[in-house]
Amino acid sequence: MALPGINELVSLDGKCAIVTGAAQGFGAAIARRLGEAGAAVFVADRNVEGAEQSAERLRNLGYNATACSVDIADRGKVTALVDAAAERTGRVDILVNNAGIYSNYYFAQMPPQEFADTVSVNVVGTFQMSQEVVQRMVADRQGGSIVNIASVDAFNTSAEGLAHYTTSKHAIGGMTKSMAIELAAHSIRVNAVCPGAAMTEGAIALVTAGAPEGIDVEAQWDGIKERTPLRRLCDPDDVARAVLFLASDMAAFVTGAFLVVDGGILVQPLEGYVPPSGH
Question: How many structural domains comprise the chain?
Fold first, then answer.
């Protein structure tokens, strides 16, 4: 039997993809790569103007992109988005759960509402988007691919002041595993991409605004590049390429996986480690 060619494996022609948090950063980069691969992409974000601008950039490149308003913490708006995408294209084949929020607070001073809001958006929002899409995928029996954007914080906290964010990313990791097990019988693959530090628009806003409880956010970012074995920060397109792999038939036998895109920072040697001579 002849093997499918690379172009066929990576092609998303005829597929419908929803990308949340796609007005900027990772989401915008992901939407671009999925559009380039042929998918009809729904660029979803609560920042409607940003989503429109992101979708317009994709259309100017010749890709099929539609801007959509959604607050993933609002079940009614989630349902409306999935209904609109399925009505327009027939079904939803790919969901990328990228939308999320973060801030910096020391644990002892963190307002309870800040913790609750972060979990509501990052965890409950991911659950709601996934459940709406999964119910449709199961009903039409054609399978699909879900990619959750987690973080290296799904393994270890990356800085002080991120207890709420790290908790949410650990939860997304657990949700990814549970979904992968339960949905495999329906040919629905569920995986996670775990990016390292990236100077996205959101990160720039956090650094320039400073932290509310005296955390030196700028100092946290200083030296990350030097501590990363590949000696650079994560680029949004690094994440987009990983998502394209997992969303496409290139990853047809991959589910429940965590694809770390961090330049090696999780596997860097311990401080003071000296390589053996000759290496």
Answer: 1
